[in-house]
User: Fold this.
Amino acid sequence: MSISRMATIAALMTATALSACGGGGGDSPAPAPTPPAAPGTGIFAVNYGGFSGIYTFLDGNRFSGVHFVTGSGLAGHPHAILSSTNSTTARDPIAWANFIDDANQVGAQETLGVFGRTFSGAGVTVSITGSMGGFAAIANRQMTYSDGSGKTLYDHPIALSVAAGGYTGYVRTAGISQPETTLTDMSIAASGSFTATMPNCTYSGTLVQHGTTGIYDAQATASGSACTFSGTLSGIATPTAFNGSKASWALQLDTADNAQTAVFILDQS
Assistant:
């Protein structure tokens, strides 16, 4: 093939590539679609039969969840930084605040908890074991908005400007000898600051979006005679429902040594 013929073909290929990319003309390139969650991340609802769970999987193998028992509400809060080899057949020890199995119903930290997860396609299989036994479940897809839009709670963040306002709910703690307590006042500002009050206890904290996800990293301090935490509480706020105008959250906070916990179950007023 002659050199001139090769040059002509190269020029045509370049023009075609530019046209396909929106170059070489007056049209602007189409906006990039919202990227899906990274493999191994997301918010998933699981049902173990006797109880259910909502689990958040973040980058860096960070895991945090809440358990519920019908008729009893919040039952537990497992969380950990999992190993890179973690799976349902290679489980890791976890921190696990148990809110209903201690005799005084004031919350206690599990000492035998192990957890594993294996992702497959859009779903995840999980396995957890503690003092109450061993359990396994499957979630076939991520949790979505409650408005029927199909948007996932992880990939499509609820803006703080939308989530701002008053909330009702309750808090369960472990490590400070307090039973379930109803919030007397709770509010989140569009800036991300929040306050929560109950008898003899006030929490003050901040929420900051975790990257581009629907999760918010959270930090708080507590004051008052009923809130004898040893230091700053940190964790995440996971959206558990959104119907287009009202948000629900599981705000999960722990001390650095995982000895004390406060989990808020919140519904926007």
